[in-house]
Amino acid sequence: MTTRGEMPQVRRVCVLAWGGAAVFWELSSPGRLGPSLTTCAAFLLLAGGWILHVRRGLLGELRRSREIARATQRVLLRPPPGRIDGLAVSAAQLSASKGAAVGGDLYEAVATAYGVRVVIGDVRGHGLPALAAAAAVLGSFREAAYDEPSLGGVLLRMERSLRRHLRERSRAEHPAACAAEPGSPAAEEFVTVLLLEIAPDGSLLGLNCGHPWPYLLGPGPVPYVRPLPGGEPLPPLGVLPVPADVRPYSCGELAPGNLLVLHTDGAEDARDRQGRFFPLPRILAGERTREPALTPARLVAGVHAALLRHTGGRLSDDVALLVLRNDRAPTAGPAGLTGPDRP
């Protein structure tokens, strides 16, 4: 059975076959070389005009598709403001698919009454299904981050939204199946998520569902780069239910001048031609050493450029980065100590 998408291709083949047969007949007819050449030239002109018309139509459709994809990208992954409650912020995504503008990565940072809340995540898979799952998770975060007093409450709201989305998708794809049918393709979808809460004094709380922990960049002539300390991650959303009494981990402090680099696993999983993984910590340290007053925007641009050099422009997975720098004034602790030297 021929699908609607295959019809234009079938028509093109039929027209080309008909034209080829007509030209062959004209040239093979004895005693008609002059008229045959004239007829063939007319056929070729008509065919060339038709091909140009089809090409313009296809290019127009491609242009419209890319405009829609860019508009969708701006709605789903809107650029964060440059500053949020004393924190400098920058975020961007690199797509593994040439010409693609949307995917399954998600990130957001918002200022709430409970502190600055940040999320980064990665949906299993690509294409429109991954985009829809990312939209469900990110939309619930944007609401729950303002309403829920605890970070655990935000995570539970995000999980409920994802499960509701997967049930609805299962019913749409398999109307005769139960919503909890384990063989449904939607039931196999999951999302890795990292939630952080940055208090006014820089203290960090985190909840991790199968996502890479971010890196903390410290100041100084020999800057340190270390993973943010956290506990054992929970399973990704959609794999197992999140415990109702889930509590965030204490992840230390984002001291004034320090940077926090959140990333999806596509960054550290990227390989070069020899199969070597991308050395993200070393790149981060190098960027900080070259530019002591490094801004989040410059760090994101530098890491993306290093990724493209490392892979030769051939990424195997989308890469999202979200960087925050604490630009708040140091707060004095006991005995007048400030920043990382506080007890």
Please explain how this structure is put together.
The protein is of the alpha+beta class and 343 residues long. It has two domains: 65 residues; 265 residues, PPM-type phosphatase domain (Phosphatase 2c, domain 1), CATH 3.60.40.10. 41% of the residues lie in helices and 19% in strands. It contains seven helices and eleven strands. Strands 1-2-11-10-7-8 form a six-stranded antiparallel sheet. Strands 3-4-5-6-9 form a five-stranded antiparallel sheet, covered by helices on one side. A hairpin with a 2-residue loop joins strand 1 and strand 2. Helix 1 packs antiparallel against helix 2 and helix 6 packs across helix 7. The longest helix has 44 residues. The chain is globular, with a radius of gyration of 27 Å. It starts with 6 loop residues before the first helix and ends in a 17-residue tail after the last strand. 33% of the residues are buried. The N terminus and C terminus are likely disordered.
Write a compact overview of the structure shown:
The protein has helices at 7-28, 33-76, 127-147, 151-173, 266-269, 280-290, 296-311; strands spanning 83-84, 87-94, 105-112, 115-123, 191-198, 203-209, 215-217, 225-227, 249-253, 259-263, 319-326. It has 2 domains: 4-68; 77-341, PPM-type phosphatase domain (Phosphatase 2c, domain 1). By secondary structure, it is of the alpha+beta class.
Task: Give the arrangement of secondary structure elements.
Layout: H1 7-28, H2 33-76, E1 83-84, E2 87-94, E3 105-112, E4 115-123, H3 127-147, H4 151-173, E5 191-198, E6 203-209, E7 215-217, E8 225-227, E9 249-253, E10 259-263, H5 266-269, H6 280-290, H7 296-311, E11 319-326
Antiparallel strand pairs: 1-2, 2-11, 3-4, 4-5, 5-6, 6-9, 7-8, 7-10, 10-11
Helix pairs in contact: 1-2, 3-4, 6-7
